[in-house]
Design a protein that fits this description.
By secondary structure, the chain is an alpha/beta fold. The chain contains eleven helices and 14 strands. Helix 2 runs antiparallel to helix 10.
Amino acid sequence: MLKNMIYAVLALLTLICIGGCKKTEQRTIILEQEQPLVQTSAKGEKYIRIAVGGMITPKEGIAYYRQFLDYVQSKLGTKVYYVDREDYAEINEMLRTRQLDAAFVCSGPYADGHAEFALELLAAPQAYGSTVYYSYIIVAKDDPVRSFKELRGKRFAFTDPLSNTGKLVPTFMLAHLGETPESYFSGIIYTKAHDKSIKAVAMGIVDAAAVDSLIWEYLNKSNPEFTSKTRILEKSPPYAIPPVVVPHDLDPSLKKRLKRIFLNAHADPEGREILKKMMIDRFVVINDSAYDSIREMKTWISSQKAGKME
């Protein structure tokens, strides 16, 4: 009962915010109080730092990612500090400035980081037998709309400005309609997490959202409290799955050891059990070219914007 009351109050406050915002304003909402944890080492202690982007997994799955990093620590023989960040731009900056040694990131930020500071692929998860994922455009289960084109004038939730499934894909869809998010939707919010976007739709805070298919499916299997109140309106083409990345100048021997641990985790009983909880089959090698379709979307959108300015 208390939990429901808290959700109701948060939903009301957010709706008041949305109702009072101008059409072009973009708001970030937090549906639950978060306590981000960034650990620091004792002086002189050898350690590495690995970040897990806040949108890579729903809140319920973070514990399993931390278990996996503990597993990596045991195999590596070096302390691994878990770094929690919700903002992909911040994670990329920390990778660029060598404040991180590795990170689980979205496909879009990887493509950006590769172009801007030679960010490298370490490995990629294989989930449900594949190394691709989709953007799901979701609406409330009882919403009568039947196509993306019917969302004109609705309230829409993105996740992160750099997210592929949570921002780039729906923006690309709108560009093909000759529209932008600001021109098409009556209100826009950034939730900073796919599970929060799902909740926002389920609770009626927004009319629709773009979310990561892996996270929607994960929650639909493990805890369908909110996914059961939503419906997949449209499913995008497949895109290369969010990878694990490292700075290009990471020590080669460390890079090699980390890669071996990730790629062999499924063959170890302990590692396999953790991966099962993460709903990951295994980690595999993936080529940079797998992310070309994401780069093509970015280039096409940029060309359309440039064309309108001429």
